[in-house]
Amino acid sequence: MRMILLVLLVVSPNIFAQKFLSFDALVGKELMVDNHWAGESFMLERSNEKFSVCHTIFGSGVPVTSRTSYPVYPLSERKIGFSISPEKESDKFEFTFALTQQGELEMFHEGYKLAPYTVINK
């Protein structure tokens, strides 16, 4: 019985974790980020061989307060980035999506890892 429990504890994270071998596998999946407010999400989109990110900010009184698309630029084979610019150009925020060698997605804001996030299939 202990052996079965040990095997389940070791294998279960690998069974339930989503693997992404390329950014194409992320297209159309909504990445929900818990920001301790109403939340926000990012969705990678592809049009004419170019990627963009749709950034959605959720509200407490309304379902969506803002939805804006931003162009994506490549940083390396396994990293892409995009910038969000609010009203002032000096307030630019840099985001990075990185795929690990194991196919796991890591999201960064200004170099700091965003966690937790949930992947929702659209």
Sum this structure up briefly.
By secondary structure, the protein is mostly beta strands.
Q: How much beta, percentage-wise? A: over 45%
Which sheet architecture does the biggest sheet show? Answer: 5 strands, antiparallel
Which strand order does the major sheet show? 4-3-2-1-10
User: How many alpha or pi helices?
Assistant: 1
Instruction: Give the number of domains.
Output: 1
**Average pLDDT figure:** 80
> From the alpha-carbon coordinates, what is the Rg to the nearest angstrom?
17 Å
What's the CATH C level? Mainly Beta
Return the CATH architecture.
Beta Barrel
Write the H/E string, N to C.
HEEEEEEEEEE
Could you characterize the architecture of this molecule?
Helices cover 12% and strands 48% of the residues. The chain is mainly beta. A five-stranded antiparallel β-sheet has the order 4-3-2-1-10, with no helix packed on it. It has a five-stranded antiparallel β-sheet with strand order 5-6-7-8-9, with no helix packed on it. Strand 1 and strand 2 form a beta hairpin. It is globular. The N terminus is likely disordered.
